[in-house]
Write a structure and sequence with these properties.
The protein has 512 residues and is mostly helical. The protein has 21 helices and seven strands. The protein has a five-stranded parallel beta sheet with strand order 3-2-1-4-5, with helices on both faces. Strands 6-7 form a two-stranded antiparallel ribbon. The structure holds flavin-adenine dinucleotide (FAD), ligand DLZ and iron/sulfur cluster.
Length: 512
Amino acid sequence: AKTLRLILADQLTREIASLKDLDAERDVVLMAEVMEEATYVGHHKQKLVFLFAAMRAFAEELRGEGVTVDYVALDDPDNAGSLGGEVKRALERHGCDRLTLTEPGEWRVLEMMQDWREEFDVDVVIREDDRFLCSRARFEAWAHGRKGLRMEFFYREMRKETGLLMDGDAPEGGQWNYDVENRKSLPKGVTPPRRARFAPDATVREVMALVEARFPRNFGTLDHYGWGWTRAQALEALDAFVREALPRFGDYQDAMKAGEPFLFHGVVSPYLNAGLLTAREVCDAAVAAYEAGAAPLNAVEGFVRQILGWREYVRGVYWLKMPEYRDANALGAERKLPDLYWTAETDLNCLAQCVGDTRDHAYAHHIQRLMVLGNFALLGGFRPREVQDWYLLVYADAYEWVELPNVQGMALFADGGMLASKPYAASGAYIDRMSDYCKSCRYDVKAKTGDDACPFNYLYWDFLIRNEATLGRNPRLAMPYRNLSRMPRERVDEIRADAARFLDGLPATYEG
Ligand code: FAD
Ligand code: DLZ
Ligand code: SF4
């Protein structure tokens, strides 16, 4: 049957399921830049440029192979504005009798695709996305009957199943996890390596002009744009990471430094999630460096765990728990997200730095996302739906399947502890230990009270006080709650008043 094969912006690989039996003589590949996808949240300008540029480059690659690609650009006057609208037009235009799809990474889009079975008069085939190392069915089988879904146990099974970093039946080196050796703060004098960044070519500049013209008010700037847009560039970025940063990835995985957004991180998530790199090849590249003696086990195991463990795990959780998962709000957080998440204008230097990196690069590394931006949202009690939208739009690597469990489960504890055994709540001391942010902050990280006190300090205690009914019996919080129980009443009142004054004083006027 003459088949229309739709390729989404995050399915940019020749290996994608929907292209597997492509008949270049007969079939048509459809790719469409549409307003509906570009506006369901107000994506960072760099995310839009990255995806449209990578889509255009991938279409050219397919054409180079002799494939018929119907590419609908955003400014095409006939653009129907939605994926469904474009599929309908293309089915008619090309007289196809079958539509072949790969399941998308978002519930919203899957629902849409399922409706297409009714809407269109052709066979609609939705194939499993086999780019993941763990299928949805495999994850469901693992999760079945378990009370808690701890990543660490899932990860061990994945190690065994893939054979990655295995020595027969035993983990390489004798342990599954080497984090005790990781998570150091960055010593003075250690400078991060240069990263593979790519200067826009004529096509990318054209996309930049389109995005500036059509989305002038979106979050973020294109000034520091450096994302690659082809598979070859993504491979180059991976190679540069493995050679220059991977050896110290483990050591400094949790470190933060002003003006150094990338440190020793992979900076590969936009490529992985869009399809320009596969999870397996990224893991294999890291393991090969270990086997060649070019990178230590603590670094390589830590890096592989992020992908083989966390990335696969959050995807499994997403499909297991949707659609209820996005509405969970276990801590009843109801404050509006403050403007500083959009403006970076704040005296809290850690927040100014992390929002600033996000605005400049559509990127922040994990600890910035979790322990600064996420921690503040947790302590402040900001509405999960608003926090979700923020994370979904500000990062070049963001799709709901990966954003949502990280926000709901890891950062906000909004799922009541399904994903994390305790909230990632921390006071200023943690940020001070892991970063150089505090030394140029107008607040005093050591001060607990008074106008100069670091707000994270009283917000931390206020959070525990406010949520005592829900969190007070959590064994992993026994220590702080014991300390709280010894606090004089006046001190508790003072904390509550400081926190209320601070939070009420945060401007919150933006409509997301
Ligand atoms: P590295 O630190 O080098 O890690 C290597 C790879 O491991 C990453 O590229 C990524 O694919 C994977 N990985 C690491 N941690 C996670 C994790 N927690 N969940 C899933 N994959 C992980 N990642 C996204 O890809 N998209 C998102 O929208 C996203 N939203 C997040 C929101 C919050 C609140 C938090 C705390 C984390 C989020 N992450 C998200 C996970 C993580 O922060 C990013 O994957 C990572 O910062 C990407 O940068 P990197 O490639 O340099 O990662
Ligand atoms: C994120 C995004 C954007 C901004 N634009 C498009 C687009 O124009 N066309 C398209 O096919 N996909 C786009 N995407 C990705 C989808 O919104 C969606 O997040 C993923 O396809 C889910 O797998
Ligand atoms: Fe952030 Fe507090 Fe440190 Fe300032 S003192 S940078 S607010 S943790």
